[in-house]
Amino acid sequence: MDLSTLPALTVLSDCVTTAKLGDNTIVRINHPKATAAISLHGGHIISFKPSNQEELIWMSKDAVYDNKAALRGGIPICWPWFGRVAAPAHGFARNSAWTLIEHRENDAGVIVSLGLSDNDQTREIWPHRFQLVLNVEVSETLTATLNVTNTDSAAWKFSGALHTYLSIGDIHNMEVTGMGPTYIDGLQQGKVCQGGEKLALTDTIDRVYTEPSKEIVLHDNALDRQLSVVNDGDNSAVLWNPWEAGAKSMGDMNDDGYLTMFCIESTLHAKTLEAGQELNPGDTYQLATTLSIK
């Protein structure tokens, strides 16, 4: 997906422009260190490419850019919950209209900040007041930091994830290290299992690793590179690939998409809403992920 060919809607600075991709407004970053792109619908990062490197972010060829649907691929923001502990699945942040707060740039890179606050629609789903700020730092590395602030008069609980889809050369020729030994298996009704130090795939995977290392490394052997994922504010890492049957079952995922993607997610996991992270009025919580090529 070559976003550089889209005509500019607005030129915000030397390095930052906006454009339309389908019905979605896209903030594009074009800096000597890297290029990146973020959809205002969902506050959704859809591209990150360090200079002279291959793309790190995977997007489905069949993703729907109608300014309504959650996008398949990229880095969806799952909030104020992760999974199907409430409806809609993965919360409402990935389906909401975010606003561009500010952008800054210098020789080191670009920082773009997006915001989302409670409104009539969000309060119908989740009756709390909040403010989210997503800071996206683009340089040789990409850091996405979700700042969650309770602007209500009482404490509330939440969970969430930065649901990163990594672009890889071949799912059959990769392995993952650093995810830790213990995982909750979503394909075995949440059974707690023990795994090895390395993970290679031959079929679908849907796991919540509960003791991940600070850095998880995806060894992308087909493209002869190692992708580093460093998470902060998380209590687990979700690893996911839908495999062939799963890809075919999703209308917004190309049938062979599973071959070139793998998810390593910075996750604040909770089995129920009541078991989530408690945040007091005025307090802020940060959930972050940093992607780079080692």
Topology (elements, then pairings):
Blueprint: E1 8-11, E2 16-21, E3 24-31, E4 34-39, E5 44-50, E6 77-78, E7 99-106, E8 109-117, H1 120-125, E9 130-138, E10 142-150, E11 156-158, E12 160-162, E13 165-167, E14 174-177, E15 182-185, E16 191-194, E17 198-199, E18 205-209, E19 215-220, E20 225-232, E21 236-241, H2 243-249, E22 261-268, E23 277-279, E24 284-293
Antiparallel strand pairs: 1-2, 2-3, 3-4, 4-5, 6-12, 7-8, 8-9, 9-10, 10-24, 11-23, 12-22, 13-22, 14-17, 14-19, 15-16, 15-18, 18-21, 19-20, 20-24, 21-22
Describe this structure in words.
- The protein is mostly beta strands and 294 residues long.
- The chain has one domain: Beta-galactosidase, Chain A, domain 5, CATH 2.70.98.10.
- It has two helices and 24 strands.
- It has helices at residues 120-125, 243-249; strands at residues 8-11, 16-21, 24-31, 34-39, 44-50, 77-78, 99-106, 109-117, 130-138, 142-150, 156-158, 160-162, 165-167, 174-177, 182-185, 191-194, 198-199, 205-209, 215-220, 225-232, 236-241, 261-268, 277-279, 284-293.
- Strands 7-8-9-10-24-20-19-14-17 form a nine-stranded antiparallel sheet, with no helix packed on it.
- The longest helix has 7 residues, at 243-249.
- Keywords: Isomerase.
- Belongs to the glucose-6-phosphate 1-epimerase family.
- GO terms for molecular function: isomerase activity.
- Its EC number is 5.1.3.15.
